[in-house]
Amino acid sequence: MRVFFLTFLSFFISTSMSWSKPILIVYAPDYFTSEWGPGPSIETAFEEICDCDLKYVAGDLLPRLLIERDKIKADVVIGLNTDVTLKARTLDVFIPHGQDVSELTIPIKWTDRIFLPFNWSHTAFIFDNTKVDNPPTSFEELLDLPNDTRIIIQDPRTSISGLAFVLWVKAVFGDNSEKAFFRLAPKVLTVTKGWSESYGMFTEGEADMVLSYTTSPAYHIIAENDKTKSAAIFDEGHYFMAELVGMTKNAKEPELAKKFMNFVLSETFQKMIPTANWSFPANLDSSKLPEGFAGLPLPQKVLFYTEEEVEHYKDIVIQEWLTAFQQ
Amino acid sequence: MLTLSSIVYDVNKFRLGADFRLPKSSRVAIIGPSGAGKSTLLSIISGFTKPCSGRVILDNEDITLFAPGQRKVTTLFQDGNLFPHLTVEQNIGLGIRPDLKLSSSQILLLEAAIKRVGLSDFSKRKPNTLSGGQQSRISLARALVRDCLLLLLDEPFSALGPALKSEMLELVKDISIEKDLVLLFVTHDPEDAKQICDLSVVVAEGNVYPPVCTTELFLNPPEILKAYL
Amino acid sequence: MRLSFVGGLIVISLIIFLTFGTLLAVTFRMEGFSGLARYDWAVIKFTCLQAFISALTSLILAIPISRALVRRNFIGRRILITLLGAPFILPVIVAILGLIAVFGRTGLVSDFLGFFNLKPLPLYGLQGVIIAHVFFNLPLAVRLLLQGWLSIPAERFRLGHALNFSPLNFFKYLEVPMLTRFVPGAFLLIFLICTTSFAVALALGGGPKATTVELSIYQAFRFEFDLSRVAVLALIQFFICGLIAILSFWIALPTYQGSGLDRVIPINFQGRIVDFIFILGSALFLILPLFMIVFRGSHSLFLLPEAIFMAAFRSICVALSASLLTVVMGLFVASLLVYHSKKFEIIGYLPIAASPLVIGVGLFIMSYQWMDPARIALPAAVLINALMCVPFVLRAILPTFIDIEKNYGRLADSLRMSGWTRFRWLLWPRLRRSVGFCMGLAAALSMGDLGVIALFADPNHSTLPLEIYRLMTAYRMNDAYGAALLLLLLSVSLFWIFDRGGRLDANS
Question: Is residue B6 part of a domain?
Fold first, then answer.
């Protein structure tokens, strides 16, 4: 009898404890919520200041949003990419973020009122600097490399980095992008479906260069004390990619959501990004970056397409890529 | 005891007609040329084949539509009488209860049957470790424990040597007498028929002739049988 | 046999629901109808071509290998047979890395060729896809043919010896009828598996030429979110697979094997050296990549974070549940086919043609309105994994089941063995070997499965393959290899426990 009463009591207490705290539901991509992503530490930090319970729902963002539409349970959606925002925007499920974006530490001017960037990087080819003596310093040089160079890239149809890559080529070469693809194709060892497979093959030594990000070497420097990986910096510039966060219209906890958006630009959050997400924080002064990041070679020129431009060029440039690579 | 009433089986240009009665406690040989329909006849009686018309009556019960398992008939085939993955004991036990959940009195019955056929030392072995003759005895032991009225044999001892076959036949005869069974025995060998069967049924050219006394049959075989012999 | 009828129908309905029903759910959500792009036809062509060549190669190699394994007894034979199951059950990403480590430009084979100043093997291209597919499917083909060998009664071999058969005679009179019975089904199965694979094709195929229909489905869903394209492509895949299925059924000629008494007689053919070459060759081909993973991952294995082991535990639970469920489902369908009507057989093979991605999406669409999909993620994974294995179970046990009934059905009927009794005393003892293989296969496949879980995973309830991907996405390659090794060890162990070397020499 006593056992029964105690069990009931503890059950009651625990449920009322979770009752009392509001729940903030955040949709995030899978890598974000894994224990090696930034998710867990962000959750702990936010829960300290909000007196709430942050719950992640992991999975592919865009498909989920498109299926759920009006029944979206999220208060906040984090992890969307700059190149896929148009589709998300036309769903009309987000409200303006209300944050001041004038002081963001990103290389382009941010005008979007709905989506807020929280981290960024550029596309770049990574190589092993002990094996490659003369890395290309421009895209032209890359395309002039001998045909037995081995490069691995990702498929723009299944990978966000692959998509960024073809847009990069378009931004650099304009109308000559198809010719550029034709020049590149013989040097490409293989095309993988995602970034993981490419990078894995690269680190195993299968290729001389891999399409990745300018921030990739930071991981090796900081986590493995390995200085052998470097990014090839091109004169023509590199393509900018950012990850975004947004608040939903039908949020159950709009106050909490707003609080979270403030939190995103706060120093606490931003300081976690470099070593949890291996990219540049969008609102952190470079003096506050960890050492491995501060010393990274960066491009002088940054290229970027607005979402309308992306929508306009996407199919064209993917088709060009296909034509060149299907030989 | 067993009556086949106007049985007709007519499929694929093969026709068999049968109409006869067998008395209680009879031992009957079924003899005739190959392809005449002996096995089909047994199949109809045991329930694996349905006749096109007619009735099968056993002990005043019309069993024409009964499933093989429902009939009080035990059949011994030419082969495939035993489950290779079960022991001697289990194979015989299946005759008592198909789920092998035997009560203590049933276990006694099982042991008695094993002893009767002389396989007590082998009860835990699998059939493939025993000789042909011993395997035949397992089937017979199963016939012993089954609650049946009719025992059908379809040349089950054809693979055994003459002495062994003779021994098995005697065993069959003893069991039939002990359990007061009607025995139907398909054979090619007139000597087998003469050894244990007092009656004989000739099956030839699609006809099943009424039972006659065995000795008389072989003393004065009819024309159809003469050619065969 | 009413239980088998009802149970079988329930399972059949479930299969139809999960394959067609989910497709319908996806179709209902589509807006507008888009036709096929021009390059989609090239995709279809490539899909069929690589699947055909891969299946053909796998089977052609499997015949001498299985023959060699059956007639040579050597130490470690059972271990080899179990290990042969490993490639099939590896998660794709692990297998790719292993293959690259052996066949890639910096792999063992290239080093070996380098000794003779030969250029490294060109792995990336159609040949890469075929190598990878053969790597995955040759073991399956060998196992299925081994079952075929076991189905020939020992008495036949004895008869052959008595008639002084030459090896060619043995081949003609014993092996060919068996092959006619088993090869078409095996070919169909492997063809379908290759048709629906995609990550391999893309990574090793060299580029977008090597795109399969499944990849297009993946792209249409996760990237373009064009449900109409998803539905159209899924239907096309169904159609292709259906066509091949019908073709195979038309060709396959089941023959009556006759009964035997479970005796196994060793056969001493000539050609010992040839056998040895095949056994060694297949062992090297299949085991070296695994060995490379072991080599690479062993440093990190014991340093893995606790979360990985939790995920491993969860994976094991899902795997065991799925394997049990798939066997139950397979047995019900098989009994429906054997006792009632063979007409349903093709439905049992449907899951192979279906895309797990589409099934997952369909389930998601059907469920998100009423509950949090993350809650049903693990049960959905169990269900879908079980479903995907039903065709294998069916292929493995159906011929044996038919044989059992042909040889002993009459006897069992006359002894009034029906329902559970028949299963317990007749079917199960003789099916146990095949069922063990199926359970092992299903368990191992579930362990390595990534598909469904990725769609609606709860971050706190992930499975091991998902964790491997997460590690890789976070740059942590060494840990990923360690986790991959863990996955490999667990999958192979599960497979071994259930299968125990196929019990080739056992009298069950």
Answer: yes
